[in-house]
Amino acid sequence: MKIYYIGIFKPLGTEKAIELTSVSDLSSFGYFERSSVGSFMKFFAETVVARTSAGQRQSVQQNKYMGHVYMRSEGVGAVILTDQEYQIRPAYGLLNKVLDEFISTYPPSQWSSITTAPNTSTFKMPSLDTYIKKYQDPSQADAIMRVQKELDETKIVLNKTIENVLKRGENLDSMVQKSETLGISSKIFYEQAKKTNSCCIIM
């Protein structure tokens, strides 16, 4: 079981979101793959969080990877990217914990008017580094923090593919080519990964 990425985002409409802070663990990928894989993780997270309504939780499957998303009514959302074996309860428990801590540390007045990606140190959360290490073991995570009762009573949209999340008429391939987040090498990597279906979150 593996957590690859934890990110906090502010959506801008229904097609774009900006990353406020994040942490990743790409140690399971080859050294020369990590930059491209990291770019696609961010792209995937931006795409899904922008299409998640306030108060909604959903899990999006892409090949052997899962993106778990929780959008708060305050206008900020969090994404955890894991493998398919990672259990859903601790994933959403961690999303709750991360968002509660972020909003407590940085109230909406500090980010509600932001329209461009901030400096990486603006909303620094050192605890994310701790969480991505500690919660690699979901059984330990679930013992440390009990998932709120609210989670059991809230419908979670499970096992959507990225195509189900996109709007009608949207195409992942064309979005990748138009993306300003992804560089030329990352776009080439996407095409290669799609053909080999082997190593990237976005296939």
How would you characterize the overall build of this protein?
There is one protein chain. Strands 2-1-5-4-3-6 form a six-stranded mixed beta sheet, with helices on both faces. Helix 1 (34-50) crosses helix 8 (184-196) and helix 2 crosses helix 4 (138-144). By secondary structure, the protein is α+β, with helices and mostly antiparallel strands. The protein is globular and about 45 Å long. It has one domain (3-196): Beta-Lactamase (2-Layer Sandwich), CATH 3.30.450. It has helices spanning 34-50, 88-105, 127-134, 138-144, 149-153, 162-165, 172-178, 184-196; strands at 3-12, 16-24, 57-62, 65-71, 77-83, 156-161. Residues 198-203 have low confidence and may be disordered. It has eight helices and six strands. Helix content is 39%, strand content 22%.
The secondary-structure class comes to alpha+beta
| Beta-strand share of residues | 15-25%
Q: What is the CATH topology classification name?
A: Beta-Lactamase
Number of separate helices: 8
Keywords: Coiled coil, Lipoprotein, Membrane, Methylation, Palmitate, Prenylation
Family: Belongs to the synaptobrevin family.
InterPro entries: Longin-like_dom_sf, Longin_dom, V_SNARE_CC
Organism: Saccharomycopsis crataegensis
Helices, strands, pairings?
Blueprint: E1 3-12, E2 16-24, H1 34-50, E3 57-62, E4 65-71, E5 77-83, H2 88-105, H3 127-134, H4 138-144, H5 149-153, E6 156-161, H6 162-165, H7 172-178, H8 184-196
Parallel strand pairs: 3-6
Antiparallel strand pairs: 1-2, 1-5, 3-4, 4-5
Primary descriptors:
8 helices; 203 residues; alpha+beta; disordered C terminus; 39% helix; Beta-Lactamase; six-stranded mixed beta sheet
